[in-house]
Amino acid sequence: MTHVAARARVPKKALIVFAVVAAIMLGLAAVSVVRGIVHESRRMQVVEVLDGNTVVVDANGEHKTVKMAGVQSSIRNPDGLRGGPNMCLGEKSHGWLRDRLVQGATAEVDLEEGEDGQQYATFHLAGKDVNTSMAEAGMAAPTGTGVDEATATEIDEANELARSTGAGLYDVEESCTYNSMLFEAEYKLDSIPEKTDNTVKALDKRSREVAEAVDEIRLIQEDVEALEKDGGDFEDLAWHPAKEELKQKADEAAEKGLQRLRELNDRRNQITAG
């Protein structure tokens, strides 16, 4: 091979290298553009928060009604005419979500279509997952719908935190929660004086008072026992994860009441036997 031929091949090699580098650079640029488009398509404007489960968003000029992914709150109860666990905190959940997904705000939204054909949305604002925060505040219960396994786990952990701290659906100050109902029933039992006159009439009166309090606890026991993982009602979804804790509290409260009844009955028997 002559020196002239060798020199002639150098430009060809350089052109090949240049072409490869150019192709790589163009590829990276294309990926960046695509990523930019995808990122931009996730940015949606909040139009309206209908309730704690449903949000209307503007996706590139198209209004979409989406459900909160991975969580569910109770339905709204604006007139307060219906109470109990199935209607628990519907209005507060709506207010909580509306305060965070403010009308006109822009959020990053991940959409996924569920088996029911609904669009489920995960909202990201200021680096935070709104859906997970909602579970942590006790404003909604985990569903696992419309989220990946990792996000579902995060929501479950947030729900555990809400239960352990007594937030929202697990707050004894919220009268619609099982936690509150148990607290109030046990408080009623504890408020009945231990001391009573040592007469049959007084002991019978006190026994009736204690029995009424125990019956109230037992009714809650039955409702807690009936909670099912896939029961279909909101109260199943919200409190089944806390079922064992609630059962233990209810069992202890009921046993405390039954022990008082046994003691009152023993005193009565002593009087009648004497």
Can you characterise this structure?
- The protein is an alpha+beta fold and 274 residues long.
- The protein folds into two domains: 42-170, OB fold (Dihydrolipoamide Acetyltransferase, E2P) (Beta Barrel); 178-273.
- Helices cover 55% and strands 15% of the residues.
- It is built from eight helices and eight strands.
- It has helices spanning 3-42, 90-100, 130-136, 149-165, 178-190, 200-225, 234-239, 243-273, and strands at residues 43-49, 54-59, 62-68, 71-72, 106-113, 119-125, 128-129, 141-142.
- The strands form two sheets. It has a five-stranded mixed beta barrel.
- Helix 3 (130-136) runs parallel beside helix 4 and helix 6 packs antiparallel against helix 8 (243-273).
- The longest helix is centred in the N-terminal third of the chain and has 40 residues, at 3-42.
- The chain is elongated.
- The protein starts with a helix and ends with a helix.
- The relative contact order is 0.09.
Summarize the entry for a quick read:
This protein is of the alpha+beta class and 274 residues long. Helix content is 55%, strand content 15%.
Number of helices: 8
Kindly report the spatial arrangement of strands forming the biggest sheet: 1-2-3-6-5
Provide the succession of SSEs. HEEEEHEEEHEHHHHH
Mean pLDDT: 87
| Shape descriptor | elongated
Keywords, please?
OB fold (Dihydrolipoamide Acetyltransferase, E2P); five-stranded mixed beta barrel; alpha+beta; two-stranded antiparallel ribbon; 274 residues
Topology overview:
Layout: H1 3-42, E1 43-49, E2 54-59, E3 62-68, E4 71-72, H2 90-100, E5 106-113, E6 119-125, E7 128-129, H3 130-136, E8 141-142, H4 149-165, H5 178-190, H6 200-225, H7 234-239, H8 243-273
Parallel strand pairs: 3-6
Antiparallel strand pairs: 1-2, 1-5, 2-3, 4-8, 5-6, 6-7
Helix pairs in contact: 3-4, 5-6, 5-8, 6-8
